[in-house]
Request: fold
Amino acid sequence: MTKKVYLAVVFLMFTGFTATAQTMSIGPMAGVNVMTISDVKSPKILPGFMAGIFGNYSINENFGVNAKLLFSQMGTGTDISDDIIRLNYIQLPVSLVYFFGNNGNTLRPKLFAGLYGSYLLQARDNDGNDIVFPNGNDVYLKADFGAQIGAGLNYIIRPRTWLNIDAGYSTGFNSIVDVEGTKNRNNGFQLSAGVSFPLND
Reply:
């Protein structure tokens, strides 16, 4: 059910603005996560890959909405062993964006803040084994929700086609394990780049 809700939201985000397509652009993006999990003994940053599509909707010259649909690798390492926890998610971040400058500028800095929802596809260790309890139940919950903030730059390549560069920090609201007394939350930094194309010319 959670996965269906995410897909429905994505559909609305990327098709709901058809009537105002002049202010909507979409494109591919890729980047890296630099993540840890809180409340883990001696956590170590674990880099991970992310890639997907994104859309920008301009409310006016300075404000917009950004949504991304990503495959996103998270997790953590540890300083006391070579063990890792690799969590692979489908993630949907949605942010309000403030653009500095004017529409005609070649380079436009921006700030963004918003929320994300994630659906866990896999939780595996460094040997590729699923991370489960002795009874076979999953250790990690399927749903993760949190907030993100960040900054970036948009560089115009040609009219209404932009190179988008984003750097942000995200942190989870909820524990990602169903264990009483623990508060294991995803948190860390993301760096991404993508190219957005107008829906019509």
Observations:
- The longest strand covers residues 107-124.
- The helical segments are 2-15.
- The beta strands are 24-37, 43-44, 46-58, 63-78, 84-99, 107-124, 143-158, 161-172, 186-198.
